[in-house]
Design goal:
about 475 residues; mainly alpha; Growth Hormone, Chain: A
Length: about 475
C-alpha cells in the first residue's frame, strides 16, 4: 500500500471509529433546520386548504393539485440537486435549495387564485426535494459508523418541530381574530423564515471529507476530516468537481452493477410506498379528522391534529433515532410497515370506528408512531448508506424522488377517496401499500447497521447475493 493510500485508509478508519463531536452536532442542526422547514411547508397546506375551501370553493381535483404539486416538484428537485452534488461537490450547491424553497414560500403567500398557488408550490417543491439528498449524504459521510444511523435520523427528526409549530401557529392565528385571507397567507409566508435563517450557515459548511478523498483531493480531505473530528480548523473549501462524468453517466453508473440496481429499486420502492400512505394521511389529516368529527370547528380540528403529532408522531422520530444503530434499519422498517398496515386496516375494517372518536384517535395515533419509528426514518437513512461516494447523492435523490412521487399520488388521491368511499376506501389502500412495503424491505434491502460506508460500497462476489433476503 502506498503512503497516500495508507494515510487515506487511516483517515477513514478514524472517521468511522469517532465518537460524536461538536462538529457532528453542528452539521446535524444546520442540515436538520431544512427539514423543519420542509415539514412545515408540506403539512401546513392541509390547514390552508381547509380555509381556502370556504373562500375560493375549489374543486376536489384542484384541492388535490394544491396539496400534491409540491411533492411532484420535489421529485424533480431531488434528482437534479442529488446528481449535481455528486458532480460538483456537496458544498458547492448546499444552501441554494433552501433559497429556492424560500422564494416558493413567499410567492405562494401572494397567490391571487388557486392556479397561481399551484404554480408557486412547484417552486417550493423543487427546493424541498433538493434538501433531501445533500443533507442526508453530508451527515452520513461525516458520521462514525456506530452513530451514523442516529445522526442521519436526527437530521430527519427535525421534521417533528415543523409538525408541532405548524398546527400551533395556525391555531394561534385562527384565534387572533385576523381575517382568514390574511391567516393563510401568513401561514405560507412563515415557511421562508427558517429557510433564510439557515442559508448562510449552509454556505459556510465544510465539504465532505469522503467526497474530497474520492476526487483525489487528499490534502483537503485530511483537513476536512480533522475539522469534523475536532482536530483542526477551516476546511471550508469547495473542492474540485468530479471530472469525466456527465449527468446521464452518473445515473447509469448506479444501475450497471446488479447489487446497486437492486438496492436502488428497493430503496425507491419502499420510499414510494411509505410516502403514498404517510403523506396521504398527514396532509389530508384535517379532512380525516373532519370526517370523524364533522361538527367541530377548524381551530378544534387543528389542535386535534397538533395533539396527534405531539403525542404519537414526535416520540416516534426520536425512538427511531435512538434505536437505529441498535436494532438496525431493516428491522425497524419491517416493524413500522407492519404496524402501519394493522392500524390502517383497523380504521378501514372495524365497523363504525369513525363514530368512536377516542378509539379512532388511538388507532390513528399508533399509525403515526410506527410511521416515524419505522419507514419514515429508515427510508431517509438507507439511501445515504447503500451507494458508493461517487453516486451517493444521486442514489438518494432518485430514492427520495420516488418517495415524493408516492406522496404526490397519495395526497392527490386521498381527498378523492375520502369523498367517494370515505375512510374505508382511503385507509384500505394505505394498508395494502404498507404490506407491499414489508415485502420490498425483506427481499431487496440489506442491513447496514455498524458497517462503514466503504464496506457497504464494495462489490461482493457472486451475482445472487443482492436478491437474497438478509437477516434483520
Amino acid at each position: 500500500m502506498s503512503d497516500v493510500a495508507a494515510i487515506s485508509a487511516d483517515m477513514l478508519l478514524r472517521m468511522d471509529d469517532s465518537k460524536i463531536t461538536k462538529q457532528h452536532w453542528k452539521i446535524m442542526f444546520i442540515s436538520g433546520t431544512g427539514f423543519f422547514t420542509d415539514a412545515y411547508d408540506l403539512f401546513i397546506i392541509g390547514v390552508v386548504m381547509s380555509i381556502l375551501k370556504d373562500e375560493w370553493h375549489p374543486s376536489a381535483a384542484a384541492v388535490g393539485l394544491v396539496t400534491s404539486t409540491a411533492l411532484l416538484a420535489a421529485a424533480f428537485g431531488a434528482v437534479i440537486f442529488g446528481r449535481v452534488a455528486d458532480m460538483m461537490g456537496r458544498k458547492r450547491i448546499y444552501g441554494y435549495e433552501v433559497l429556492v424553497l424560500a422564494v416558493g414560500a413567499i410567492a405562494s403567500a401572494c397567490s391571487p387564485n388557486i392556479w397561481w398557488l399551484i404554480g408557486f408550490r412547484v417552486i417550493l417543491g423543487i427546493g424541498i426535494g433538493g434538501d433531501y439528498p445533500v443533507s442526508a449524504t453530508l451527515m452520513s459521510e461525516c458520521s462514525g459508523k456506530k452513530s451514523r444511523g442516529m445522526m442521519v435520523s436526527l437530521v430527519f427528526a427535525m421534521q417533528a418541530a415543523g409538525l408541532i409549530v405548524g398546527p400551533l401557529f395556525a391555531a394561534a392565528l385562527l384565534k387572533s381574530g385576523l381575517s382568514h385571507d390574511l391567516v393563510w397567507r401568513l401561514l405560507l409566508a412563515f415557511g421562508a423564515v427558517p429557510a433564510m435563517a439557515v442559508f448562510r450557515l449552509r454556505r459556510h459548511m465544510a465539504e465532505s471529507p469522503r467526497y474530497l478523498l474520492a476526487t483525489g483531493q487528499h490534502e483537503d480531505a485530511h483537513a476536512a476530516s480533522g475539522h469534523v473530528l475536532g482536530e483542526g480548523h477551516g476546511a471550508a473549501r469547495n473542492g474540485k468537481p468530479r471530472k469525466n462524468m456527465s449527468f446521464a453517466e452518473g445515473l447509469l453508473a448506479l444501475i450497471r452493477r446488479r447489487d446497486l440496481r437492486v438496492r436502488l429499486i428497493g430503496a425507491s420502492a419502499a420510499w414510494f410506498l411509505m410516502d403514498f400512505a404517510y403523506y396521504g394521511n398527514t396532509v389530508s389529516s384535517p379532512l380525516v379528522i373532519h370526517a370523524v368529527a364533522p361538527n367541530e370547528n377548524l381551530i378544534t380540528e387543528t389542535l386535534t391534529q397538533l395533539a396527534i403529532f405531539a403525542i404519537a408522531a414526535v416520540p416516534g422520530y426520536f425512538v427511531a433515532a435512538a434505536m437505529m444503530d441498535r436494532i438496525g434499519r431493516k428491522t425497524i422498517q419491517i416493524l413500522g410497515f407492519a404496524m402501519m398496515a394493522l392500524s390502517f386496516a383497523a380504521i378501514a375494517l372495524i365497523p363504525g370506528i369513525e363514530t368512536l372518536i377516542y378509539p379512532f384517535l388511538i388507532v390513528y395515533g399508533i399509525s403515526y408512531f410506527f410511521t416515524e419509528f419505522g419507514p419514515n426514518a429508515t427510508t431517509f437513512v438507507y439511501p445515504a448508506e447503500l451507494f458508493p461516494v461517487e453516486g451517493r447523492t444521486t442514489g438518494h435523490g432518485i430514492a427520495s424522488a420516488a418517495g415524493k412521487l408516492g406522496g404526490f399520488f397519495g395526497v392527490f388521491s386521498f381527498p378523492i377517496l375520502l369523498n367517494s368511499g370515505g375512510l374505508v376506501a382511503a385507509e384500505s389502500i394505505a394498508a395494502c401499500v404498507s404490506v407491499l412495503g414489508i415485502l420490498v424491505t425483506v427481499f431487496m434491502l440489506p442491513e447496514t447497521k455498524g458497517k462503514s460506508l466503504e464496506e457497504l460500497s464494495v462489490k461482493k462476489a457472486g451475482p445472487e447475493h443482492a436478491l437474497a433476503p438478509s437477516t434483520p
